[in-house]
Design a protein that fits this description.
This protein is an alpha+beta fold. The protein is built from 8 helices and 15 strands. The strands form 4 sheets. It has a 5-stranded mixed β-sheet, with no helix packed on it. A 4-stranded mixed β-sheet has the order 2-13-9-8. β6 and β7 form a beta hairpin. The longest helix has about 45 residues. It starts with a helix and ends with a helix.
Length: about 350
C-alpha cells in the first residue's frame, strides 16, 4: 500500500502546478488586455482632440441676415464619441433671449429634443455663428443620457446612437432646426469593447483556477469546502469593479459613478463573509475543516442536504446580478436598487450567519 501512495500524490502535485500556471497565464492575459483596451480608448480620445470649429471650411460658415430668428443650420463633424466637442452653426445668435443681467442666455445642446443642461455652448465666432459644445455625460443629465444611450444600435463598428442635434435655451426651449441628417454618436468602440470583455473573462478564469489551488474562496486551506459568503463577496467585487471601469472608459466619468446602493451591496457581502469567519472562530471547539464535495454542493448543502438559507442567498444574488448587468447594458450607469432589495440581502446574510452558528455548535 505504501508503494502506491507516491503514485497517487504525483498526479495531484502535477495538477496543482498546472492550475497554478493557468492562474499566471490568465492573470497576465487580463493585465495585457486591459492595457490594450486603455490604449485604444486613449487613441480614440486623441483622435477627436482637435476643436471642430477650427476645421470648418469657409463655405460652411453660414452668414445669417440680421433680425432672423435663432435656428440650427448645420453641425460638424457628423460622427463623434462621448466626451468629444461638437461645432454647431446657429443662425441669429445675437437674437437669443437676454437674461436679467443683460447678457445672452446660455445656449444648451439638445439631442432628440432632450435638453442637456450640463452641455453649455461656447460662442466661438458671433459673426460666423459658430457655437461649440462638449458632448459629455454629466451627473445632472444622467437621466437624459440614459434615454439617449438606451437607443443604441449594435454593429461591427460597435454601439452607436443616431441623434437629432438641436440648440436652445431654458427660456425659449429648442430653436427651429433646418438640419436633416442625424449625428452619429459612438457609445462603445468595437476594438475597445472586445479586449475589455476578454479582460473580464480572463480575470474570472484566473480566480476560478486560483480557487482550486488556494484558500481564496474556501473556509479553510486549499481542498476544504468553498465558502458561500466569500463566493458572494468575490461575485460583487468583480461585477462592480468591471462595471466601474467599463463606464469610466466609455464615458470618461469616474465621479458619481458608484451609487450608495452599490456600495451598500458590496458592504453587505463583505459583512456576511466577516460574520462567517467570526462564527468559525467563536465556535468552541472549532469545527474540523471538511473536504470539498464540489463547488455547488459546498455553497448549497449543509448537514447532508440543500439548506434553504443558503439557497436564498444564491438565488437573490443571481437575480440582482442579472438586474445589475442589464442596467449597465441599457443605461451605462450603475443601478440604484430599491431599499427593500438591500434589506432582503442584509436579512439573508444575517440568517446565513445565524444558521451557520447553530450548525457548528
Amino acid at each position: 500500500m505504501s508503494l502506491q501512495e507516491p503514485v497517487k500524490a504525483e498526479p495531484l502535485a502535477a495538477g496543482a502546478t498546472k492550475k497554478t500556471n493557468w492562474v499566471r497565464f490568465f492573470t497576465w492575459s487580463a493585465i495585457v488586455l486591459f492595457f490594450f483596451t486603455l490604449a485604444r480608448v486613449v487613441y480614440l480620445h486623441w483622435e477627436v482632440h482637435s476643436r471642430p470649429c477650427d476645421d470648418i471650411s469657409a463655405q460652411d460658415k453660414t452668414t445669417v441676415t440680421a433680425g432672423s430668428a435663432p435656428s440650427v443650420v448645420n453641425f460638424f463633424p457628423d460622427k463623434i464619441s462621448l466626451g468629444s466637442p461638437l461645432c454647431v452653426v446657429v443662425a441669429g445668435p445675437a437674437n437669443v433671449a437676454i437674461d436679467r443681467d443683460g447678457q445672452p442666455a446660455p445656449l444648451h445642446l439638445f439631442l432628440d429634443g432632450l435638453e442637456l443642461k450640463g452641455s453649455v455652448g461656447a460662442l466661438v465666432d458671433r459673426k460666423k455663428n459658430l457655437v461649440e459644445f462638449d458632448v459629455a455625460r454629466t451627473t445632472d443629465d444622467s437621466d437624459v443620457w440614459s434615454k439617449i444611450i438606451g437607443q443604441f444600435k449594435l454593429g461591427w463598428s460597435g454601439a452607436r446612437v443616431p441623434v437629432h442635434v438641436g440648440v436652445g435655451t431654458d427660456k425659449q426651449g429648442e430653436f427651429d432646426n433646418a438640419t436633416q441628417a442625424p449625428l452619429e454618436l459612438m457609445v462603445v468602440d468595437f476594438w475597445a469593447f472586445v479586449p475589455g470583455a476578454l479582460t473580464f473573462l480572463a480575470a474570472v478564469l484566473a480566480l476560478v483556477f486560483a480557487a482550486q489551488t488556494s484558500a481564496i474562496l474556501r473556509d479553510g486551506a486549499a481542498g476544504t469546502t468553498y465558502s458561500l459568503a466569500r463566493v458572494q463577496m468575490a461575485f460583487w467585487l468583480y461585477l462592480i469593479t468591471a462595471a466601474f471601469i467599463f463606464i469610466w472608459l466609455v464615458t470618461g466619468d469616474y465621479n458619481g459613478v458608484l451609487s450608495s446602493q452599490t456600495l451598500t451591496l458590496l458592504g453587505i457581502s463583505g459583512t456576511t463573509a466577516l460574520m462567517g469567519i467570526s462564527v468559525d472562530k467563536a465556535t468552541t471547539p472549532a469545527p474540523p475543516p471538511t473536504t470539498s464535495q464540489g463547488f455547488l454542493n459546498d455553497i448549497l448543502n449543509e448537514n447532508g442536504g440543500v439548506a434553504l438559507h443558503r439557497l436564498q442567498i444564491v438565488v437573490w444574488t443571481a437575480i440582482l446580478g442579472v438586474v445589475f448587468f442589464f442596467a449597465i447594458y441599457r443605461s451605462f450607469r450603475l443601478p440604484e436598487f430599491d431599499s427593500n432589495l438591500l434589506i432582503l440581502m442584509g436579512i439573508s446574510g444575517v440568517t446565513y450567519a445565524g444558521f451557520k452558528f447553530q450548525g457548528e455548535k
